Amino acid sequence: MTIVFVTKCFLYYILKINKTDFMLPCSCHVLQESLLSSASGYSNYRGILNWCVVMLVLSNARLFLENIIKYGILVDPIQVVSLFLKDPYSWPAACLIIVSNVFILAALYTERRLAVGTITQMTGLIFHIFNLTSMLIFPSATVLIVTSMTPVGGVLSLGIYTVLFLKLYSYQDTNRWCREIRQAKAKRLTRSYSCPSVAQSNGSAGHTHVSYPGNLTHRDMYYFVFAPTLCYQLNFPRSPRIRIRFLMRRLFEMWMVPTIQNSMKPFQVPNHLIWLIFFYWFFHSSMNFVAELLQFGDREFYKDWWNSETVTYFWANWNIPVHKWCLRHFYKPMLRKGVNKFLAQTAVFLMSAFFHEYLVSVPLKMFRLWAFMGMMAQVPLAWFVGRFLNGNYGNAAVWMSLIIGQPVAVLMYVHDYYVIHYGSTT
Amino acid sequence: MTIVFVTKCFLYYILKINKTDFMLPCSCHVLQESLLSSASGYSNYRGILNWCVVMLVLSNARLFLENIIKYGILVDPIQVVSLFLKDPYSWPAACLIIVSNVFILAALYTERRLAVGTITQMTGLIFHIFNLTSMLIFPSATVLIVTSMTPVGGVLSLGIYTVLFLKLYSYQDTNRWCREIRQAKAKRLTRSYSCPSVAQSNGSAGHTHVSYPGNLTHRDMYYFVFAPTLCYQLNFPRSPRIRIRFLMRRLFEMWMVPTIQNSMKPFQVPNHLIWLIFFYWFFHSSMNFVAELLQFGDREFYKDWWNSETVTYFWANWNIPVHKWCLRHFYKPMLRKGVNKFLAQTAVFLMSAFFHEYLVSVPLKMFRLWAFMGMMAQVPLAWFVGRFLNGNYGNAAVWMSLIIGQPVAVLMYVHDYYVIHYGSTT
Fold first, then answer.
1. Pair B113, B124: CB distance under 8 Å
2. pLDDT surpasses 80 at B413
3. Is B356 a catalytic residue?
4. How far is A299 from chain B (nearest CA, A)?
5. Residues with Cβ < 8 Å from A90, sequence gap 6 or more?
């Protein structure tokens, strides 16, 4: 060994070359694939995302500057207000949103009664069903009847009611599960069984954790109402502190992104791009902003849908709050009841199609079923892509369906809306 | 333990819920960051690359179709030929390329003489210097003198000569290193030292591996000339077999990509996009095609320059064959001679600037120094970006310099060329 070492040092001195050169004086190539070959397994394209942003900004720079010089950076407040209000003395959307508190409190008080046992399980269920059904019928009836309601105000208030509907459904479901566990526990305790797992979870519920009936407070309810999730749980994971810089960056984006979007003249930029920007604004900037404010820990609002190679993967990953809700409160309970997988999946799409249609048709006061059909068309599309395409081809197909499908559905409604309200398409 | 298990089974039976639901009946959230937050460390955006391709194809689909219907999918052969030939009876570029064999064989025969020792080290060096210098002067003189040489023919033949210049420089350097090691080994053998490391590498050189003087054959030389690398080494890593499907896919791309590029009318698509497509065509499709044909194993023709956060990283990663050559035959030898790092780096940029200018000025017969200045401007730019920007901002700055810098340099030459040849810019 020492001889080898001495030899190497000697050679190193003679040739005055560095170590790697000495080890392989004549070789500098190794067997390897190119990064863009699929065989390389490489997938870090963060830079491409930046390229897209730079290209978007540069290609619209002239337009941005023109608009900013002409109209200033501020969004015209009167124009924004006119989207929500026809008559400044009647604020139907705002009133409707304020009324939603009635339904929230009804759900809370029903749960309190159920917890102490002053009403039976069945009565509680009927109360909840009545409350939840009213939450869908009451706002849609209001939007259809009140003439001073604008389409934007209608979409906004119906959207908020739909979110609350999903939240309160999750609320009653989760609380029922908690009661069932408590009952099972009580039964076992009378039979003098010990229950280490539940006892342990109660034990670790030290200073902040609450256990079942303790969660039925106004504070807990309203935290859930404002939290960026649709699935209720007793102790949400909390982030340790509010990061001011993170909060400010998200706030800046929340203000900047719509400004940029406004600076692009409509229909010059493809509809698809507007959807992408909206996705970033809503699912990244806004939700993270709210979560940071509430110290809500679970920031998984979307997964890597941009890599989706099947339509199903896209729908399961672009909107995680809704997907999580569907899985927890609709798909899994159906499977437990013995419904077959394909049927359950179709039912989820059916429900999703119903809500898409509900959110578009009612505020526009047009029942055209384009949104419903668009959502239901995903089932055969998913089958086709899953059956015949995979890898990058599948991914390209998903992008194509987004780039072409969405604007077509939107244009259908825009076209029909213009025909109804202005008599002609021109 | 059994009690816990029985309890769980009992609960499972009562509640008819699946296992994860039982374990955490009321929790479905965990503490985590959003994927697009830089804190998540996520970087898989392969889908975004597909999005870019789909958007490029779709946004140009109408144009593509129009062009294909009008002109057919075939590139007009007469138009292509006219790029290379002014006079069909005089093929100056082709002749120039055929003559390059003289320089290749001169380098090989000089090395053979050096290996057997019929000429001294110094004589060999003088021969090589004379040979390499001629390789730069002879083609440029020919391009400048022969009037029937077109600019495209000039760029092509000068490009091939430059590549050969770099290859033959590497060839003589590597062979000299091999001789030096052989001499050192011989010296040690006379002193009765054993040399396990070198003996071992000779031992493993069984059926295919060659050792120093055995590599000086025509076959080995021409393999190196055609191989997609600029750095010579004795035993190149070889891929086990030619994958016909891979070969066909690259061939399809080699034909398809310029067809698509032709279908885009010039100046409607940004120059930068043409560079990106050229990059893919040359560094991925063509180089991989040649490598697959020659069973050349090292396919690292580029690294992840799209993620580069500094200008230096970009220049070190977008063109690996040239970068590898500069490092092995220019930068490292300079460092060994005690030159400081910054000076050596600037010298590399200076040499690169010289070759950029050489490849543009001589065929266009215009000495404007735009390419030279463009390359030298990279040094202060690299300093600025490295000093003031990092992360995604640095990446955006690199993209901006590519998107803006390149077209400006190209437009300079186009402008001047038009002014000289057509008298006015219109």
1. yes
2. yes
3. yes
4. 5
5. A148
Q: Confirm or reject contact between A116 and chain B (CB < 8 A).
A: no
| Contact (CB<8Å) B27/A3 | no
- B254 or A334: which leads in pLDDT: A334
Q: Which long-range contacts (CB under 8 A, 24 or more apart) does B346-355 make?
A: B346/B379, B349/B315, B349/B375, B349/B376, B349/B378, B349/B379, B350/B376, B351/B326, B352/B315, B352/B322, B352/B326, B355/B162
How high is the ipTM of this complex? 0.73
Burial class of residue B226 (count of CB atoms within 10 Å of its CB; 0-12, 13-18, 19+): exposed
Over residues B274-284, the pLDDT tens digits come to 888 889 999 99
- Residue B343 CB-density burial (10 A; 0-12 exposed, 13-18 middle, 19+ buried): exposed
Window 8-37 of A: residues touching B by CB (8 A cutoff) are 8, 10-11, 14-18, 21, 25-37
Angle formed at CA A416 by CA A412 and CA A419, multiple of 5 degrees: 145
| The token pair that represents B12 in the structure block | 């499972």
Burial A211-225 (b: 16+ CB within 10 A, else e): ebbebbeeebbeebe
Do A43 and B45 lie within an 8 Å CB cutoff? yes
CB-CB neighbors (< 8 A) of B26 in chain A: 174, 177-178, 232-234
| pLDDT for the residue numbered B197 | 40
Mean pLDDT by 10 residues, chain A (426 residues): 47 43 61 84 83 78 70 63 67 89 95 92 94 94 88 90 96 92 83 43 52 90 95 90 91 79 59 84 93 92 90 91 94 93 90 90 86 86 89 89 83 83 65
Q: Which of A128, A323, A329, A356 is catalytic?
A: A356
What pTM was estimated for this model as a whole? 0.76
- Structure confidence by residue, pLDDT tens digits, B201-250: 443 334 478 888 889 999 999 999 999 999 999 889 998 889 999 999 89
Q: Which amino acid is at A138?
A: F
Q: Which residue has the tokens 């819920």?
A: B17
Q: Which residue from B134, B132, B136, B128 is spatially nearest to B158, judged by alpha carbons? A: B136
Asked if A25 and A17 count as a contact pair (C-beta separation under 8 A), the reply is yes
Nearest CA in chain B to A33: B299
Query: Which of A 233-262 lie inside 8 A of B, CB atoms?
Result: 233-239
End-to-end alpha carbon distance in chain B? 90
Q: Round to whole Å and give the CA distance between B80 and B96.
A: 19
- Kindly state the tokens that stand for B230: 């600029």
Longest dimension (CA), chain A: 97
